[in-house]
């Protein structure tokens, strides 16, 4: 409702100008209407900004104050109607304008006095700002009325403003007749009173709800920041001892061990590697959550795909899986190369982990709809439809164990780069994970090639 005040101001001022005797040509009248409309719209924002100390808000007592300013926007229309009904003289129309503007300011003043203890108990500064804002609004709105009068009649600005301000405080209200006063009051006062009495409880509840929500968000942000700092500290403090343990385990492998000891040592080394990888991923996740600046450079996706094939070739050979890449064109992106490589590597690791022996995993790069695409296709057990929405949740594990942190990291990294990650899967037929990122430039026309 309060947002519509500028619109009401434009409509009311237009009616007011049309009701006045013609003094300017059409262009001059249009300019006057627009100038006055902008002035009233700005004046309507003054009480809210001064009373709250912040930008305009739809919630709480600021909206009530804005609603009480509505007579100022309706005043020109009310004066025009009064003129048509009672044939007011020009001086009486001026008096009516001053009357309504002054009444609006006084109404806002009274509303501030009533509502400020409800909106901000124990905050006397709010009451002081409310009083000041009401006075400022009244002075500004009357000033616009005086400027309009001076422009229309071609009179000096100073004396006209003086008459306007004095008229707003005279009991006789500049001689507005009974018909004019009645028309103005019937069109403005009941509406303001109704809106104030009917909407104050609702708007006050809205204001409190918004304040509660804002406070909850701030507390949640503080908790998340504390968790990230804790996670980073723990990861750093644990990673260093794990590295030492891993190095000592490697030294023990060179000694003479029986089969049981060698097997136990191999298991311990594998678990140590798993923990180190977990903490590495936790650090990456904390880094992406913290929103640290990305170290962007130009990344050729075909080159990255080839590097991933060479990196995971030993794993693929052990599992008897064919790992290959295909490139359609030469798509490139501006990205943090280390983070993007880790996101893609997580997809490749998942594909190798869940693909059965004798099958293949494909890393495909191309350009799709002006976006650079990196796609990982496997022929594993697939993902049930009801699980697809949850696989990117942290530490979520599906029926086949797919999940953990790898997919959560991949999604976080891709979204940090302004891209998206998509998944298509059919149970028993495999899965297709697709990373889409803004392309650095259109892909060049290079022949498709494959690396195995």
TrEMBL record:
Xref: InterPro entries: HATPase_C_sf, HATPase_dom, His_kinase_dom, HisK_dim/P_dom, HisK_dim/P_sf, Sig_transdc_His_kin-like_C
Keywords: Kinase, Membrane, Phosphoprotein, Transferase, Transmembrane, Transmembrane helix, Two-component regulatory system
Domain of life: Bacteria
Record GO terms (molecular function): phosphorelay sensor kinase activity
Enzyme Commission code(s) on record: 2.7.13.3
Domain Histidine kinase per the UniProt entry, residue ranges: 233-441
Keyword Metal-binding annotated: no
TM annotation in the entry: 60-82, 94-114, 126-152, 172-200
Catalytic activity: ATP + protein L-histidine = ADP + protein N-phospho-L-histidine
Name of the protein in its database record: histidine kinase
Originating species: Candidatus Nephthysia bennettiae
């Amino acid at each position: 409702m309060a947002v519509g005040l500028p619109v009401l101001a434009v409509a009311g001022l237009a009616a007011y100008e049309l009701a006045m005797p013609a003094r300017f040509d059409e262009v001059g009248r249009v300019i006057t209407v627009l100038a006055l409309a902008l002035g009233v719209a700005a004046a309507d924002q003054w009480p809210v900004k001064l009373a709250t100390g912040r930008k305009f808000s739809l919630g709480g007592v600021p909206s009530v104050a804005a609603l009480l300013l509505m007579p100022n926007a309706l005043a020109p229309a009310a004066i025009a109607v009064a003129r048509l009904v009672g044939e007011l003289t020009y001086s009486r129309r001026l008096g009516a304008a001053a009357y309504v503007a002054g009444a609006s300011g006084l109404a806002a003043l009274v509303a501030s006095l009533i509502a400020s203890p409800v909106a901000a108990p124990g905050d006397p500064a709010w009451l002081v700002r409310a009083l000041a804002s009401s006075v400022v609004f009244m002075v500004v709105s009357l000033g616009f009325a005086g400027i309009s009068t001076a422009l229309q009649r071609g009179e000096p600005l100073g004396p006209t403003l003086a008459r306007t301000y004095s008229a707003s405080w005279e009991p006789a209200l500049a001689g507005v007749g009974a018909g004019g006063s009645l028309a103005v009051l019937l069109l403005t006062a009941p509406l303001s009173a109704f809106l104030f009495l009917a909407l104050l409880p609702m708007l006050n509840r809205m204001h409190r709800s918004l304040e509660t929500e804002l406070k909850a968000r701030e507390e949640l942000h503080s908790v998340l920041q504390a968790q990230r700092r804790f996670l980073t500290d723990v990861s750093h403090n644990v990673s260093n001892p794990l590295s030492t343990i891993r190095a000592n385990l490697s030294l023990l492998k060179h000694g003479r061990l029986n089969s049981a000891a060698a097997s136990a040592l191999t298991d311990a080394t594998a678990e140590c590697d798993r923990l180190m990888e977990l903490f590495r991923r936790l650090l990456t996740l904390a880094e992406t959550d913290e929103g640290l600046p990305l170290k962007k450079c130009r990344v050729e996706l075909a080159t990255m795909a080839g590097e991933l094939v060479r990196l995971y070739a030993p794993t693929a050979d052990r599992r008897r899986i064919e790992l290959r890449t295909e490139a359609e064109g030469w798509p490139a992106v501006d990205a943090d190369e280390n983070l993007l490589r880790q996101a893609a590597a997580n997809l490749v690791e998942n594909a190798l982990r869940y693909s059965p022996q004798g099958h293949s995993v494909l890393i495909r790069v191309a350009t799709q709809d002006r976006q650079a695409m990196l796609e990982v296709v496997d022929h594993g057990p697939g993902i049930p439809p009801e699980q697809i929405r949850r696989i990117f949740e942290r530490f979520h594990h599906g029926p086949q164990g797919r999940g953990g942190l790898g997919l959560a990291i991949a999604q976080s990294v891709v979204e940090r780069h302004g891209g998206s990650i998509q998944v298509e899967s059919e149970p028993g037929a495999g899965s297709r994970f697709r990373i889409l990122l803004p392309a650095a430039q259109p892909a060049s026309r290079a022949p498709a090639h494959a690396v195995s």
